[in-house]
Every structure is written in structure tokens, then in C-alpha cells.
Amino acid sequence: MFSSSSRIRNWTARRCWRRSRRTVLLLAASFALISCALTASQLPAETQAFTPADPPARENPPKPGSSVPPLYFFYVIHTHSSSEHLPFTDPSQTVVDPDAAAGLERIIRSLQETLDRNGIKASWHVTTSMAKGYCTAGQDDSIFHRLQQAGHEIGAHAHNRDQIHPAYLALTQECGITPKVISGLLVEASKVPGPLAQEIFSDAFDQSVALGMTLTTENLAPSGGKNPLADVCTAFGDGNDMWETTGNLMFPWRPDFAAGNVCIHNPDSPMLLVNHVSIEVFLEGGTKPDVLGADSFAALRTYLDGALAYMAAARPARPAVWGFVTHIIEYAHGDGTSGPDADSIAALDSFLAYVDALREQGSLTVATISRIAEAVDGAR
User: Fold this and answer.
1) Domains of the chain in sequence order
2) How confident is the prediction along the chain (380 residues), in pLDDT tens digits per residue?
């Protein structure tokens, strides 16, 4: 047992450490952005196509109290293994493998500790097997309950339309958590041509809305090889023309799935789509590394800096968002059952500290998907 005085000293030390680290990173962030602004001032930003290795032109970062609105930042974590039946022993999902369950939970706990240390709440999207494997009906002490109680958001994750209802039922009945957010639907849609992808998305959104899941996160930026709609849609949402310099579609929109066109914004649609950066940002030589590291987050940072440059240049009058997605197993080797990789977690910690410094500066606001939806609706 620690005494009261020792607990106070420990709390004070942690608070001072976080403040000192934030100050150093804030200075580094400001210097980096200003340096890039000076380097890129010779070329207009709109002529520079975005690539992760070559950050786009950017102006000085927005300052607190300036006319530049803060960027809404979010982080989505797809909470499942590469073996989708885990933590169960096999696809029948009847017997939990205790060693696998313990290893995956260590990753989740390590990620939560890293997020909480930097004051960032994530949106965790859970598959059927993970919800069933970690939750027991009538009990509220699962890892997902603890995440929710700590201020994180819990959503559903489905890789095809047949998984939507089971994922929802597992969260509501086993975990006692009612999700508002659904993700993962791009997996099925990306396997077919554009017109069929429209049908898949439209049907998936219809099913999700019927269950009360009216928010979704996907990557539909018309770049890379992940968007099946790039060849059939001339626009995505309303005014989303910044993707070449940000790698993202920063204005959420309400896809007109009832009309069979999820690329078109319909203000009366019940579904809100919040776009995130493609997982392709982490590819190295066309291949995703076994675990994310410092180079992975250096590439990701160029996207974030490009989004901040857009905010400084465009000063949009409506909420603009930027976020990224990872899977829990990208912080662990293999299928994740051996637990987290310390160096990978440290790389995430460094990136989130950079985000925290930008928040302290007033350049961005950290938000869950539900909070972003409230901001979008409040601006209508």
C-alpha cells in the first residue's frame, strides 16, 4: 500500500513529466511545420500531389485564438486478430483459448495505457468473436466495459454484410454495450467492381441503420488501391477536394444509400460517414510490416501535417476531421497471441505525444466518432 503523500508525489511527478514532454514536442511540431512552410513556399500547394515520403506544402500551424478552426482528430482501432475466430480455439467459437485471450488482452491494455497517458480516447471496433470471447452476459467487468468506462468508444466491426447483425448482437447481448458505429464494410465491397460495391455499401448501411448504428468509418479517398468506388464516383460527399494533399476526405457526409449512391451527400440520410486515412500509408515497398514502427508513424505524420496545412489555408467554416486506423495485431508479431511488441507501442506513444502537443497548441481537437457526429450535426 502506498501512503497518501507518496501517491500525491507520484501523481505530481507523472503530471510534470507529461507537461515537460508536451512542451518539447510542441516546440518540435511548430519548428517542423514552419520549416516545411518555408521550403514549400516556392510552389502553390494545390499543384503538389501528396505522397507519404514527400510532405505537402503547408503554412504555419494555426495558433490558439486564431481564425483557423481546430481539426477534429480521431483514432479507430479494429479489435481483432488475423485469425478471426480468436480468442476461440476454432471457427465454431465454442471454447476460448486462455493463452490467446491473455495475449490479445495484453495488447489492448498496452494500447489503452498509451492512449490514456497522452489523453486520447479512441474508437474501438469489435468483431463478433472478440465480443463473445471477452464478455459474459449480465456482467460488466470485461475489457470493453473498462475501455468504455475510461471514456473510449466501442463500436461494431464486420467484414461483410452477414457479420453485421451477429456483431451487433454480441455487443448488445453479451457485453451489454449498444454500438452506434460500424466499420469494416469496405472489405467486402473492395472485392467487386464499382457498381456492385455501391450495392454492397448501400445494403450494409441500410442494415446497420435498422439496428441503430448510424455512424460508419471507412476509407473512400480516391487514391491507392483500396477504394472500389474511385472509378464510378466523380465526387465523394460535399467539397472533399483536399485529398491529394491530405490523403483523406476531411468533411464527413451523409451517403445517399437509399438511392444506391453512397458517394453523394444527402443531408436527410440517417448514416454519417467519417473517412479515415487508408491503411496503405503503412506499406513499405508495397508490403505491410509485421509490426508498426517509427518509420510507419513518420509516414503517417506527413498526412496529419498535410491536413493541418489545409486547415491553415482553407479555414473551413464546418467541422473537418482527420483520423487513422490500425488493428491491434499491428502492435504484435504474428496473430497477436504472444502480446504486444514494446518498440511498436513506443512508436505509437511518440506519435500520440506529437498529437497531444498539437492539441495543446490549439491546432486540433481529439474526438471519438460520436463526438464528431455531434459537431457535424451542430453545424447544420
Assistant:
1) 4-43+52-378 (3.20.20.370)
2) 333 344 334 444 444 555 555 554 544 554 444 443 333 332 223 223 333 333 333 334 445 445 677 899 999 999 999 999 999 999 999 999 999 999 999 999 999 999 999 999 999 999 999 999 999 887 878 999 999 999 999 999 999 999 999 999 999 999 999 999 999 999 999 999 999 999 999 999 999 999 999 999 999 988 767 788 988 998 999 999 898 778 889 999 999 999 999 999 999 999 999 999 988 888 877 788 889 999 999 999 999 999 999 999 999 989 999 999 999 999 999 999 999 999 999 999 999 999 999 999 999 999 999 999 999 988 76
Note whether 337 and 86 are within 8 A (CB): yes
| Chain position carrying cell 518498440 | 343
267, burial (CB in 10 Å: exposed 0-12, middle 13-18, buried 19+): exposed
Angle at 360 between CA 358 and CA 361, to 5 degrees: 60
CA nearest neighbour of 327 among 233, 229, 187: 187
Chain position carrying cell 475489457? 143
DSSP-derived pairing of the beta strands 153-157 and 364-366? unpaired
Question: For the whole model, what pTM was predicted?
Answer: 0.84
The residues facing 364 across adjacent strands are 71
